[in-house]
Write a structure and sequence with these properties.
Blueprint: E1 3-6, E2 8-10, E3 15-17, E4 37-38, E5 49-53, H1 77-91, H2 98-112, H3 118-129, H4 136-147, H5 151-156
Length: 159
Protein backbone atom coordinates (compact mmCIF):
# COMPACT_ATOMS: atom_id res chain seq x y z
CA UNK A 1 0.00 0.00 0.00
CA UNK A 2 1.27 3.44 -0.83
CA UNK A 3 0.91 6.89 0.61
CA UNK A 4 0.89 10.47 -0.59
CA UNK A 5 3.80 12.84 -0.28
CA UNK A 6 3.01 16.51 0.34
CA UNK A 7 2.88 18.92 -2.58
CA UNK A 8 3.79 22.59 -2.63
CA UNK A 9 1.68 24.64 -5.03
CA UNK A 10 1.30 28.37 -5.51
CA UNK A 11 -2.07 30.06 -5.07
CA UNK A 12 -2.35 30.28 -8.87
CA UNK A 13 -1.88 26.52 -9.29
CA UNK A 14 1.77 26.25 -10.37
CA UNK A 15 3.29 23.04 -9.00
CA UNK A 16 6.50 23.82 -7.08
CA UNK A 17 7.07 20.27 -5.80
CA UNK A 18 4.98 17.12 -5.60
CA UNK A 19 7.22 15.70 -2.87
CA UNK A 20 8.48 18.27 -0.36
CA UNK A 21 9.65 15.53 2.01
CA UNK A 22 12.33 14.31 -0.41
CA UNK A 23 13.06 17.42 -2.46
CA UNK A 24 14.00 20.78 -1.14
CA UNK A 25 11.12 23.08 -2.01
CA UNK A 26 11.87 26.02 0.23
CA UNK A 27 10.12 28.53 -2.00
CA UNK A 28 7.71 30.77 -0.10
CA UNK A 29 6.74 32.34 -3.43
CA UNK A 30 6.28 30.97 -6.94
CA UNK A 31 9.12 31.55 -9.38
CA UNK A 32 6.61 31.65 -12.27
CA UNK A 33 4.12 34.23 -10.97
CA UNK A 34 5.34 35.49 -7.59
CA UNK A 35 2.30 34.17 -5.75
CA UNK A 36 2.50 32.68 -2.24
CA UNK A 37 3.01 28.90 -2.06
CA UNK A 38 1.10 26.50 0.18
CA UNK A 39 1.40 22.88 1.32
CA UNK A 40 -1.89 22.58 3.22
CA UNK A 41 -5.54 23.20 2.49
CA UNK A 42 -6.42 26.70 3.62
CA UNK A 43 -9.83 25.46 4.79
CA UNK A 44 -9.00 22.36 6.88
CA UNK A 45 -5.17 22.39 7.06
CA UNK A 46 -4.82 18.88 5.57
CA UNK A 47 -1.59 18.36 3.59
CA UNK A 48 -2.04 18.76 -0.17
CA UNK A 49 -1.65 15.40 -1.89
CA UNK A 50 1.37 15.22 -4.14
CA UNK A 51 3.29 12.20 -5.41
CA UNK A 52 1.73 8.83 -4.54
CA UNK A 53 4.63 6.75 -3.23
CA UNK A 54 4.64 2.97 -3.53
CA UNK A 55 7.79 1.26 -2.25
CA UNK A 56 9.84 -0.19 -5.11
CA UNK A 57 7.76 1.47 -7.85
CA UNK A 58 9.03 4.37 -9.94
CA UNK A 59 6.44 6.68 -11.49
CA UNK A 60 7.32 8.50 -14.71
CA UNK A 61 3.97 10.17 -15.43
CA UNK A 62 3.17 13.85 -15.45
CA UNK A 63 2.49 15.23 -11.95
CA UNK A 64 -0.98 16.65 -11.49
CA UNK A 65 -2.29 19.51 -9.40
CA UNK A 66 -5.41 18.54 -7.43
CA UNK A 67 -8.51 20.69 -7.89
CA UNK A 68 -10.20 19.94 -4.56
CA UNK A 69 -9.02 19.01 -1.07
CA UNK A 70 -9.13 15.28 -0.38
CA UNK A 71 -10.08 15.93 3.25
CA UNK A 72 -12.82 18.58 3.17
CA UNK A 73 -13.81 18.71 -0.51
CA UNK A 74 -13.33 22.47 -0.80
CA UNK A 75 -11.77 23.85 -3.98
CA UNK A 76 -8.13 24.86 -3.70
CA UNK A 77 -7.43 28.56 -4.34
CA UNK A 78 -6.40 27.95 -7.98
CA UNK A 79 -9.63 26.07 -8.64
CA UNK A 80 -11.72 28.74 -6.98
CA UNK A 81 -9.96 31.44 -9.04
CA UNK A 82 -10.54 29.47 -12.26
CA UNK A 83 -14.25 29.02 -11.51
CA UNK A 84 -14.67 32.70 -10.61
CA UNK A 85 -12.79 33.82 -13.73
CA UNK A 86 -14.80 31.51 -15.98
CA UNK A 87 -18.05 32.82 -14.49
CA UNK A 88 -16.92 36.44 -14.94
CA UNK A 89 -16.08 35.72 -18.57
CA UNK A 90 -19.48 34.14 -19.19
CA UNK A 91 -21.13 37.29 -17.84
CA UNK A 92 -19.35 39.27 -20.59
CA UNK A 93 -20.97 37.30 -23.43
CA UNK A 94 -23.95 39.45 -24.41
CA UNK A 95 -25.29 36.88 -26.89
CA UNK A 96 -26.32 34.55 -24.06
CA UNK A 97 -29.52 35.03 -22.12
CA UNK A 98 -29.28 35.15 -18.30
CA UNK A 99 -30.65 31.59 -18.23
CA UNK A 100 -28.01 30.37 -20.70
CA UNK A 101 -25.26 32.06 -18.70
CA UNK A 102 -26.45 30.26 -15.58
CA UNK A 103 -26.61 26.95 -17.46
CA UNK A 104 -23.04 27.36 -18.70
CA UNK A 105 -21.73 28.34 -15.26
CA UNK A 106 -23.36 25.25 -13.75
CA UNK A 107 -21.32 22.99 -16.07
CA UNK A 108 -17.91 24.15 -14.81
CA UNK A 109 -17.57 21.96 -11.69
CA UNK A 110 -18.28 18.84 -13.77
CA UNK A 111 -15.90 19.94 -16.52
CA UNK A 112 -12.81 20.29 -14.32
CA UNK A 113 -13.06 16.91 -12.56
CA UNK A 114 -14.28 13.52 -13.71
CA UNK A 115 -17.85 12.92 -12.54
CA UNK A 116 -20.76 10.91 -13.93
CA UNK A 117 -22.06 14.22 -15.33
CA UNK A 118 -18.83 15.31 -17.04
CA UNK A 119 -19.79 14.20 -20.56
CA UNK A 120 -23.23 15.78 -20.26
CA UNK A 121 -21.66 18.99 -18.94
CA UNK A 122 -19.22 19.00 -21.88
CA UNK A 123 -22.07 18.62 -24.34
CA UNK A 124 -24.13 21.36 -22.68
CA UNK A 125 -21.17 23.72 -22.53
CA UNK A 126 -20.16 23.10 -26.14
CA UNK A 127 -23.69 23.79 -27.40
CA UNK A 128 -23.80 27.08 -25.52
CA UNK A 129 -20.26 28.10 -26.49
CA UNK A 130 -21.02 27.46 -30.16
CA UNK A 131 -23.51 30.32 -29.89
CA UNK A 132 -20.76 32.82 -29.05
CA UNK A 133 -19.95 35.34 -31.75
CA UNK A 134 -17.76 37.73 -29.81
CA UNK A 135 -14.01 38.09 -29.95
CA UNK A 136 -13.69 36.62 -26.48
CA UNK A 137 -14.78 33.16 -27.64
CA UNK A 138 -11.23 32.07 -28.52
CA UNK A 139 -9.85 33.32 -25.21
CA UNK A 140 -12.61 31.53 -23.31
CA UNK A 141 -12.04 28.26 -25.19
CA UNK A 142 -8.29 28.52 -24.61
CA UNK A 143 -8.87 28.92 -20.86
CA UNK A 144 -11.19 25.91 -20.81
CA UNK A 145 -8.66 23.76 -22.71
CA UNK A 146 -6.18 24.22 -19.87
CA UNK A 147 -8.54 23.02 -17.13
CA UNK A 148 -11.27 20.88 -18.64
CA UNK A 149 -10.83 17.20 -17.88
CA UNK A 150 -12.64 16.07 -21.02
CA UNK A 151 -11.34 18.80 -23.29
CA UNK A 152 -11.16 16.61 -26.41
CA UNK A 153 -14.87 15.84 -26.18
CA UNK A 154 -15.69 19.47 -25.54
CA UNK A 155 -13.49 20.73 -28.36
CA UNK A 156 -14.91 18.27 -30.89
CA UNK A 157 -18.17 20.20 -30.59
CA UNK A 158 -16.66 23.66 -30.90
CA UNK A 159 -16.39 25.23 -34.32
Amino acid sequence: MGYYKTAKICLNGHLISNNIENHSADYPFCTSCGSKTITICQNCQAPIHGYYHIEGVVFFGEPTVPAFCHNCGEPYPWTKTFLETAEDMVDMFDELTPEQKLQLKETFPDLIVETPKSKLAALQASKLINGFNSAGKDIFISMLKEKVIDSLFLLMHLN
